[in-house]
Design goal:
By secondary structure, the chain is mainly beta. It has seven helices and 41 strands. The chain has a 22-stranded antiparallel β-barrel. Strands 20, 25, 26, 29, 30, 31 and 34 form a seven-stranded mixed beta sheet that branches. Strands 3-8-9-6-7 form a five-stranded mixed beta sheet. A hairpin with a 3-residue loop joins β11 and β12.
């Protein structure tokens, strides 16, 4: 059963006292140290250090962020910890060009460069190289993507197609979550968080395996309290989750330059939410309000072998197995996945730096429908074969051209190629300009190929008296998926060791979009239900869209102990070839904000006291009654003793509650207001 505290909506008096305590504690901590702060060493990386940080997501090989010809942002562990985030989705609010909207206590809508939805299907998410999107709808269940946040080394976010290396579904971007090596998480870590909204307890221990190996194990338990319905009343959307896992790393002995990783996780999660469902009865209203229980559990294991031949040549072999089970009101999805990938990085050959790779993924599902959802095949096997090649060509000491392509064969659309070209101008050691042209593909999901969903039911308005009309979503086995042609231009500059900027512009043209158009009506019977007059809508791929925009970031080390980082993004979406019979086709134009901005001020008040303020702005989503929103989060951290840290966090302090999103792809779920949250955290390392 999902975690339910009952009606526990936080009263405003307690919130006022909590907010007052936050600001009072800040003032008490700041005043004695305000004039001595210049002598304090910063906890955070400088702008110069960030540009020199190593990234791997752009080319699947290590390179400096400054040299990466893509719109990439690296969210460091320090930023995650200082943001006060209690989950991976909350941490992603800091990344420019990424829309993060909390739908209710247990659900998020996250996208890059538009088309946001709880079932977003244009974003590829990886955790330590393991793909976590669900082939059922080609999206991510964010409620079950979690770990000990202190163990995340960094999150690399590519805005724009990453399909050349990562494959189908990396249409609008890639989020690559990379955890720390076991050697970097030695000893004990215990942490507890408690507040008016969220709470969790986590424990991690790291140790040695002989002379060349390290390991860690962890356990985590979290609770998320009920939010309030937009119309008032308890949303009953609380969540509880427990998970545990391990990681072990070894280095080979002797002359062999090998290293090995073996890791795994398991979780069990329970939640709920209100949902409208069709009713097959006359007369009167033909929907009912049901409490949908969401029960999910699963686990995974991953192994990786790296052999280093030289400083610029390496072979990697990785494989994982993943099992997931998700049971909710309309369907049950059980899935087992096996994946294996190999990659070889050739040593530099004259002007050419070549990387090749290949992989195979097998997935088997077992689906159980309901009176609202049916499938033709309750069990299906899917296979994906893939390979890629990439060549970085040195045209001269300042100009580089990267050419590459991913080649895939899947069971739905057959063979697809996803080429990419990137031109890089290394103007000098402090600045770089780049441009790219890419083609990416989103393969059809299981739902688009084999689904019958009854969206709504009501009276047809005429005889016979038992005749109902239903608005249904049906599959189209002939649908071939979506394609995008993307063009980008960027410039990155290190103005001084303390000031840096990054700007990226883009234009994308999408074809074969999964919009739903009215098919041929029919009258039929399902089981013992009354005969229905069906108005079916099926994906047809006739619509296309254009998106364009600009994303800017800036980082300024004002003082040795004060850092400011800011970002701003503009997004324009235009849909084309929409007919009067197309269902919800204008939604993409209205479900992502046109303007987004954030500002993060990080201040090391003393060597033991830190203060962070995060401002966020999202413009309105008018079609879904989501107003423009300015959000303020604050965190005060105090290192009480060696290994012991206390922190006090306030989230969304400017409003008692905020309505962030309504998903047009899941319109049966009731809108929910997200409450202001205030919590305390104790972390002990020993």
């Amino acid at each position: 059963m999902p975690y339910q505290k009952g009606i526990s909506k936080k009263d405003t008096t307690a919130l006022r006292y909590s907010a007052a305590f936050l600001f009072s504690a800040l003032n008490l901590a700041v005043m004695p140290a305000a004039y001595a702060a210049d002598d304090v060493d910063s906890f955070a990386l400088s702008p110069e250090q960030l540009f020199n940080a190593t990234v791997t997501s752009v080319s699947k090989t290590s390179q400096k962020l400054m040299d990466a010809p893509a719109a990439i942002y690296v969210l460091t562990n320090e930023e995650i910890m200082r943001s006060g985030a209690t989950s991976i989705p909350e941490a992603l609010r800091l990344v420019p060009g990424v829309q993060v909207a909390r739908v209710n206590a247990n659900s998020w809508a996250i996208s890059i460069r538009g088309f946001n939805s709880t079932l977003d299907d244009k974003l590829l998410v990886l955790i330590d190289g393991r793909t976590v999107y669900d082939p059922l709808f080609s999206g991510v269940y964010w409620d079950i993507q979690d770990t000990v946040l202190e163990d995340i080394d960094r999150i690399e976010v590519i805005r724009g197609p990453g399909a050349t290396l990562w494959g189908a579904n990396a249409v609008n971007g890639v989020i690559n979550i990379i955890t720390k090596k076991a050697a970097d998480t030695q000893g004990n870590l215990a942490s507890t968080t408690y507040g008016n909204q969220d709470g969790n307890v986590e424990e991690r221990y790291g140790g040695k395996l002989g002379d060349n190996g390290y390991y860690r194990v962890y356990g985590k338990y979290l609770e998320r309290d009920n939010e309030e319905l937009d119309t008032g009343g308890n949303a009953r959307d609380a969540q509880e989750e427990s998970r545990g896992g391990f990681r072990a790393d070894w280095k080979g002995t002797g002359d062999a330059k090998d290293d090995f990783t073996f890791q795994g996780d398991a979780y069990n999660s329970g939640a709920s939410q209100y949902r409208f469902q069709p009713l097959f009865s006359l007369p009167g209203p033909h929907t009912q309000l049901d409490l949908e229980e969401l029960d999910a559990h699963g686990g995974n294991m991953l192994g990786r072998w790296n052999r280093t031949f030289s400083e610029d040549s390496k072979f990697t072999l990785q494989s994982y197995v993943d099992y997931t089970s998700r049971d909710q009101l309309v369907l049950r999805d059980k899935r087992a996945t096996f994946d294996i990938d190999a990659q070889y990085e050739f040593p530099q050959m004259d002007r050419h730096k070549i990387i090749i790779g290949g992989g195979y993924r097998y997935s088997h599902d077992n689906l159980t429908g309901s009176q609202f959802v049916t499938f033709t095949d309750i069990g299906e096997n899917t296979n994906i074969l893939s390979s890629f090649i990439q060549d970085k060509i040195t045209l001269d000491p300042q100009w580089f051209l990267t050419l590459g392509s991913k080649f895939e064969h899947n069971d739905y659309t057959g063979f697809v190629a996803e080429p990419n070209a990137r031109l890089q101008w290394q103007i000098d050691d402090s600045q770089m300009a780049w441009s790219s042209a890419s083609h990416a593909v989103r393969t059809p999901s299981r739902l688009e190929e084999d689904l019958h969903l009854i969206q709504a039911a009501g009276s047809a308005g005429g005889p016979p008296a038992t005749l109902l009309t239903s608005l249904d979503t049906i599959a189209n086995p002939g649908y071939n998926g979506e394609e995008v042609n993307a063009y980008e231009l960027g410039y990155r500059k290190q103005w001084t060791p303390k000031v840096s900027t990054d700007i990226a512009t883009f234009y994308n043209a999408y074809h074969g979009l999964s919009t739903y158009t009215l098919a041929t009506p029919a009258i039929f019977v399902i089981g013992t239900d009354p005969t229905r007059f069906e108005e079916p809508f099926a994906p047809d791929g006739n619509a296309w869209a254009e998106t364009y925009g600009v994303e800017t970031t800036a980082n300024w080390r004002v003082l040795n102990n004060l850092n400011l980082s800011a970002s701003h993004s503009v997004l324009v979406i235009a849909m084309h070839d929409i007919t009067a019979n197309t269902l919800g086709a204008q939604a993409p134009e209205k479900q992502s904000p046109k303007y987004q901005a954030n500002l993060h001020a990080a201040w090391d008040i003393t060597k033991d006291v830190t203060y962070d303020a995060m401002f966020y702005y999202n413009s309105a989503l008018t079609s879904y009654l989501v107003q423009s929103h300015t959000r303020l989060d604050m965190r005060l951290g105090w290192r009480v003793a060696d290994g012991v840290e206390l922190s006090l966090v306030g989230q969304d302090l400017l409003d008692p509650s905020t309505h962030e999103f309504v998903s047009p792809t899941d319109g049966h779920v009731l809108p929910v207001d997200i409450s202001r949250a205030i919590y305390g955290k104790v972390t002990w390392r020993f």
